[in-house]
Amino acid sequence: MQDLLAKIIKMDEQARKIEQQAKAEKLESEKEVEALREQIYSDYINRAKERIEKNIAVDQAHADKKLADYRDHVTQAKEAMRKLCDEKKKEWVGEIVNRALS
After folding, report:
1. Which pTM was predicted?
2. In the predicted model, is pLDDT for residue 1 greater than 80?
3. Distance CA 54, CA 17 (A)
4. How far apart are CA 4 and CA 10, in angstroms?
5. How far apart are CA 71 and CA 42, in angstroms?
């Protein structure tokens, strides 16, 4: 009887140790999963930031190109208007004077 009781107590102690080990392993696994989740999230955020920075750079370059093209267009239009003004200046002044005097 004493032997049986000692075996039961020993088995109970072993079961408790196994349970404690299982709980410890579960906690460790949960920590590892959480760390992995945080790492994946951090990597995702970093990649997203890099893509955003690249997109900003591309968009900025595109905007700069459009601005340069617009400025060239405006400069050409000003030059064309100035040339037309120089060519027609005397004619327009004469027309204005004639209309004012008529």
Report:
1. 0.54
2. no
3. 55
4. 10
5. 43
